[in-house]
Design goal:
With 203 residues, this protein is mainly alpha-helical. The protein is built from eight helices and no strands.
Length: 203
Amino acid sequence: QAEDGIRDRSPSRGLEMCIRDSNRRKAGMSNARDHVPTAANGVKREPQPATRSSAKPLAKSPRRRAREFALQGLYQWRISGNDEATIKAHMGDVAGFQKADREFFTGLLHGVLAQHAALQEQLQTFLDRPFSELSPVEASVLLAGAYELANFPQTPYRVIINEAIELTKGYGGTDGHKYVNGVLDKLATALRPVEVEAKRTKK
C-alpha cells in the first residue's frame, strides 16, 4: 500500500461490486426511513422531521453518469483486457445506463482507448512513479481526465478536474483524489495555460 493512498482500498473488487454494495446500503437506509416506530403500548409515534444528513442527494447529470460508466469500461479494459465492443455491449445491459449521455460515453471511451499511449506519455511527466504502478481506478480516471482536457475545450478545466476528483473519491483509494487533483492540475497548466492563468488571476 502506497503511503499516499493512491492504490485501491480493495483492488480485487470490481467497480460494479462497489456500486452494488452502495445500492444495498442506500436501500437499507431507505427501508429504515420508511419504518414507523411504535411505542411500548403499540401506539405509532410520529416520524421525526428529516435531518440534513438524511436528505436525498442531488440527481446525477447524464454526463456524470456517462463518466462513471466510462470509468467502469476503462477499468474492465485495464483489468481484463476487454475491447471497446465488448465493453459497450456489457454497459448497455447495466442498470442506469439509459440515463447516461450515451454519445459522451461513447466518445470518451473510444477516445481514451484510441489515444491511451499518447495520453499516458503526457501524464507520465507529472507522475512520481511509472504509470503502470498506478491503481486501475486512478489510472483510468487520469486517462479520461487527460482526454477531456485535450479534446473538450468547451468544458472548463476545473469542471473536468472536479469530476475526476469525485469519481476517485467514489471508487479509488482513500487519498487518491488528492493525487488525481495534483496531476491533472499540472497537466491542465501545460495544455490550457491561458485558461488556467485567467482562472488563477480572478482569485
